[in-house]
From TrEMBL:
Its main location: membrane. This is Magnesium transporter MgtE. Belongs to the SLC41A transporter family. The keyword Hydrolase does not apply. It is a multi-pass membrane protein. The lineage of its organism: Bacteria, Pseudomonadati, Pseudomonadota, Gammaproteobacteria, Pseudomonadales.
Amino acid sequence: MTENEAKKTQESLQDRLAQVVELLQRQRVVEDLTHRQEGHHHDLVENLVHRQNLVELQRKLDDLHSADVAYILEALPLDDRLTVWQLVKAERDGDILLEVSDSVRETLIADMDDHELLAAAKEMDADELADLAPELPRDVVHELMETLDAQQRERVRSALSYDEEQVGALMDFEMVTIREDVSLEVVLRYLRRLKELPGHTDKLFVVDYDGILKGVLPIKRLLVNDPEKKVAEVMADDPVVFQPEEDAYDAAQAFERYDLVSAPVVDKNGRLIGRLTIDEMVDLIREESETEVLNMAGLREEEDIFASVWRSLRNRWAWLAINLITAFVASRVIGLFEGSIEKLVALAALMPIVAGIGGNSGNQTITMIVRAMALDQVSPGNTSRLMRKELAVALINGLVWGGVIGVVAYLLYGSWSLGVVMTAAMTLNLLLAALMGVLIPMTLARLGRDPAMGASVMITAMTDSGGFFIFLGLATIFLL
């Protein structure tokens, strides 16, 4: 999709959202007006207008892709969201539940009874059921498992047995397998009998009679080669394969590195048990990116933008409490130098500059390090070199921009010694920011925590307290 097409699609989706919001507002206005009216035909008029608005709203929803309906649901307050959700056709419930964010899905499931949940789940494949099952009531999951055939039940249990960050939890069981000793013509006839291929089928999986993966047959090779050739002659016998215990993020990086659309998943004996597809990898990368952004801000989990006040408070309070403590520490650092500030008022005006620039520089460093760690570019062998590089960048930036603010300080207050202190403080605080920007995520990773967890909060705390201490300490020593 080109950039213009993508923009057009997004604009169209925004228009649809605006239309849905307008219809909901119109419905509320009409209901309010009809409630104020009195007369014999009051109930009839209200009912007709109400049904007319809902029919128009439902028609608009029916025209939208499930992912677009999910987008609209996420953008609506809870009451409006549930109103729209009730208008979605029952056969689309499963697809939309899989598309919405976890927090919004929770509100939708809470609005559904067991019968509706079972009806929605019965339309899903095994891998999709495994995604949804942890969020369903236990009795619904139990009843649902009883309705599945033996193969589907085993597939769901298999997917649920893996951690959500493992390949096995994301693999798809719908795939096309063929034998290596048949001709391409036989394969083509077999595909025509299927009438429909699983989504993202760019290759067929070649297995023996025991289900052991022998290779893959890309669709493009199937189409351009002589139909009389055997599969073994044209297949690729060295495909990229994954095992269900592997880390899903490593698999996502492999998909990006090798431009994969699908890839086989095999057990320890080489038996084909599933496949990974590009759509799952894109969703995983997006979720990981969102999680990193939330973690760096100190948010513990994804939050519905229209969540209740209490739930939002529970999600945000922990790191705010930590931030309050660090802010108190910074204030006590300033308190240690009250006498210096009273004697030289210029210090009060200049010290936020040192802390603010240090915080920005530290966030730049920590963002680069977290990204590099996510891409597995940081190893014990290059840590010291990485540290030296970041310190060198901080030193040069400190001398250049510290020199600039030092000149400004001299011009404003007529003190060259104040300018020198400003330059020195800026340089030292940037060095501190670079050091902490490397050490914080690495320490978190070594402790088994997400390296982005609260990183932004911690680096700001270090550069604020450190910046105040360095600047006011130098000023006390050399200016007073």
